[in-house]
Amino acid sequence: MESTATFDSNVLAMKDDVALELPSLPELLESSSSYPVPPSTFAQPEFSAYLSQLTDLPLAELAVEPTTLSSSAAQLTNALTTLCHTSYPTFLSLHATTSTLSSSLTSLSSSLDGLLSALPALEDSARSFAQETREIQKERRKASLVLEQHDKLHDVLSLPMLLDSCVRNHNYNEALLLANHASSLAQRFPANPLIQSVKGECDARVQAMLAQLLSMLREQAKLPALFRAVNFLRKMDVLDEQELALAFLTGRVAYLAGALHAVDVERQALAGDRDRDKETYARFLKRHVDVWREGVYDVVTQYTTIFLERAPAPGAPAAPPPAQLQMLLRMFTTEQLQALLKLLRATLPHIPDPALLNSLLTQLTYCANSFARVGLDFKPLLAPIFVDAVRTAVTQELGDAAAAWSAKFVALKDRIGPAATPKRPAQLLVAASAASAPPLPTPAQLDSLRSGPPHVPPQILASYPLLAIYTNALLSALNGLRLLAPVELYRDLLVALDGTLATGAAALLGYARDKPWLGGKPPASEAQAEEDAKVLRAVGTVYFDVFAPFVVRALSEGVYGRPVGSVVGEKVADVRKEWDELFPAEAQES
Predict the structure, then answer these.
(1) Distance between CA 208 and CA 204 in Å, rounded?
(2) Mind telling me which SUPFAM superfamilies this protein's record contains (predicted)?
């Protein structure tokens, strides 16, 4: 048994050695010179698979395998021949196409090589072009965006123009709506410079509208227009109620000042004689008072309606107007009234005619009565001004009358030249028909003078022309005083009249004492001297006993209806004493 096992192992070892020594079929075919096959053929999978199939075939099939292969080769050759015969155009076309494709692929390869070499430069150029055109692209995108939003942008950009057109056409409500729209856009886009620019332009137009509305307060306008302007100013919300009231009063004061200045032009052109001037001043004052009354009354009623009687909001209880608003109206009326009173104080002295003063006082009284309905009765303030004006006017007329009387004697006294021949008293002071026997008052005439009508001059004064003229001048002043005779002036006018009569008496005394008709020479005759003295004594008697008491009584009883307390005043009495010392005989007779 052991020997058998040993033999088997020897047989196997021999077989393995034989297997290692026998070459494989591909090696035999490769080494065979009759079948030169390239070594690469044996590496193909199809060839290896066929060789594996041959080794597995039985011997009978392996013997007929060459015949089968020859038959298959003949069939393939016939089929290939037939195919080449029938499809040779295709093969030719395929060959030409293949050649063309080969050359095209070669050209494409070279073109691709050139393209690959040019791509880096193209990439750099494209990159630089993109960088250079980046800003242009941004602008283009912006332009495209602007074009897409053109309608909306046009609406926004046209806001200032539309607002300006509304302001110029006084469509303030639409202008405020546009301004509010611009403000809302500015709040929505606070960082947008375009919106902020539009907002700035709209604000400039709103300021122009504000100036236009404020200027309307300075123009001639009625209550509805002013009320509308103030309401728009309230809607603009740029002034509080007190500032708005102050702006309203300022504008109306400016308009009133312009209207009064137009009237004041007439006063600035005053020229000519005194009578014409006083009428011009009176006419100016009447027109000024009319314009002032209408203007101030309109402002008071307009201000009261717009600010003090303003309707409360719906559902809110009615509240009294703020004290500041009432104070502004009081300040306005006080200022305007003070301006009127100041003008009256400055102008009334230029109107010495009591008739004109009475007319002005009547006009101002009616004006004060109309203002009393709005709580501005200023009648008590007029009395002192007109009292001063009457005092000035009457005193001036009395003084002018005394100056005219005295000028007759002063002119004679100051006459220079040999050709000048002063008039004697008989020629100057008494009528020619009574020069020889100047009339003297009888006791009956003196009694009638005290009990007769105070406004009828004594008949004896007709015999003394200069004294009659003096009497008419004083009576003219007193007649004018009757139209406007303030009670407060009674004592002052008595004193003024006493001074006037004393001035006239002093002029007559100086004429009698200086005797200017003699020219510094002795009288031509005793008869002439006696005649002159007789005339002077008669004139003095009539002056002190008839003329002076009559004028004083005309003032006391004729104007004021009061009894005469004293016939003449102290100043006249003092001159009478000097006159009696100059003409003692006359003093004894009296």
Answers:
(1) 6
(2) Cullin repeat-like
- The torsion defined by the Cα of 204, 209, 210 and 215, in degrees rounded to 10, comes to 130
In this prediction, residue 143 carries a pLDDT of 86
Give me the DSSP letters along 472-536.
HHHHHHHHHHHHS--GGGHHHHHHHHHHHHHHHHHHHHHHHHH-GGGTTS--S-HHHHHHHHHHH
**b/e map of 53-69 (b: 16 or more CB within 10 Å)?**
eeeeeeeeeeeeeeeee
Q: Which pLDDT score is estimated for 12?
A: 47
C-alpha to C-alpha distance for 355 and 269, rounded to whole angstroms: 23
Distance CA 439, CA 442 (A): 9
Dihedral sign computed on CA atoms, order 278, 280, 285, 286: positive
Structure tokens of 465? 């022309």
Q: Is residue 11's pLDDT more than 60?
A: no
Residue 270 has pLDDT above 60, yes or no: no
Task: Evaluate whether 545 touches 446 at the Cβ level (below 8 Å).
Answer: yes
Span between the terminal Cα atoms of the chain, in Å = 224
Please give the Cα distance from 548 to 572 (Å, whole number): 8
* HEC string for 213-260: HHHHCCCCCCHHHHHHHHHHHHHHCCCCHHHHHHHHHHHHHHHHHHHH
Q: Cβ(333)–Cβ(256) under 8 Å?
A: no
Section 431-440 average pLDDT:
77
pLDDT digits (tens, 9 = 90+) for 533-584: 888 888 888 888 888 888 888 888 888 888 876 556 788 888 888 888 887 7
Q: For the CA atoms of the chain, what is the radius of gyration? A: 70
User: CA 396, CA 390: separation in Å to the nearest integer?
Assistant: 10
Choose the weakest-confidence range: 226-230, 425-429, 456-460, 570-574.
425-429
> What pLDDT score does 5 carry?
45
Range with the poorest average pLDDT among 44-48, 94-98, 228-232: 44-48
Task: Output the pLDDT for position 254.
Answer: 93
- For tokens 């050649």, what's the residue? 99
Closest CA to 289 of 209, 370, 226: 370
- Position 568 scores a pLDDT of 64
Q: Using N-to-C axis directions, what is the helix angle for 88-132 and 59-86, rounded to 10°? A: 70
Our CA angle for 588, 589, 590, nearest 5°, is: 90
Where exactly are the structural domains of the chain? 147-238, 246-377, 391-589
Distances (CA, A) of 160 to 150, 234, 557: 17, 22, 81
CA–CA distances in Å: residue 96 to residues 80, 104, 106, 264, 412: 20, 12, 15, 122, 162
pTM beyond 0.85: the answer is no
Largest CA distance in the chain: 234
